[in-house]
């Protein structure tokens, strides 16, 4: 077996765990809507995000104090750029929510699932299969059915669309830059960058970054540890196993989980919302089906390749 075949087989074995962990991450993110909404009622959104990402960065640094030493200067620069894209995502979404409804915001933010393959195709010159575009389209329709209750283009919608584009940049950039680097260290740099940028953005609000009460502290700690530190490390690791587009489609499960959790606490799910959730699930299946069909011919070609024994030891 050639070394390239070993690498491909290793990546293939890691695909299923990566997908399952990304679904778990989407479930965590979907469960935090109520917690975040409650916290930002008590403190400015920029201050909340500063505290959230500071907690996440501190947790990861405490667990691996020497993690940053795993990156060279290029790795640090790439982590800063990814962190800037992530900070822009959260800040633009927060500012957009001041001018649009949360349902419209949820839908437009979910448009990262469209921007991700577009960036991959246009900027990185990656050829995407028809099943990828079909799955992306299904995910968008599903998101619309899940979230929209009327729609109009205004200032808030434009800001949120920029938020979705920045999130797509972070997903694509992670997929390109994580290879050959320590995913953990790359995340630490991102989180520190987001903390600094959100802290700067909170200055006009009086730099109110300390949670004012126990409920706000709960929101900061829960989202900082689970929905940020753990979730982004998992996402970054997963992108060493699966493509950015597949990650983006799985991430559209977040509003599905949010809707299901809302149903458990007493919200009603309409037929349209249930249809939307089903379409997002189908979108995941379509993208995965396309990935499997593309992998099989590649696997067969690699298995037929002659084994290079020129550098092997032996009698």
Notes on the structure:
76% of the residues lie in helices and 0% in strands. The chain is mostly helical and 315 residues long. The protein is globular, with a radius of gyration of 21 Å. The N terminus and C terminus are likely disordered.
Write the layout of secondary structure elements.
Blueprint: H1 3-13, H2 15-31, H3 33-40, H4 45-63, H5 73-97, H6 102-109, H7 112-122, H8 130-147, H9 155-177, H10 183-201, H11 214-238, H12 244-251, H13 253-264, H14 271-304
Q: Residue-averaged pLDDT, rounded?
A: 83
Strand percentage: under 5%
C-alpha geometry: globular
- Specify the structural class: mainly alpha
Task: Give the number of DSSP strands.
Answer: 0
Q: List low-confidence stretches.
A: 1-12, 305-315
Return the string of H and E elements.
HHHHHHHHHHHHHH
What is the alpha-carbon Rg in Å?
Answer: 21 Å
Binned, the helix content reads over 70%
Give the N-terminus to C-terminus distance in angstroms. 19 Å
Count, helices: 14
Largest sheet: none
List descriptors.
315 residues; disordered N terminus; mainly alpha; 76% helix
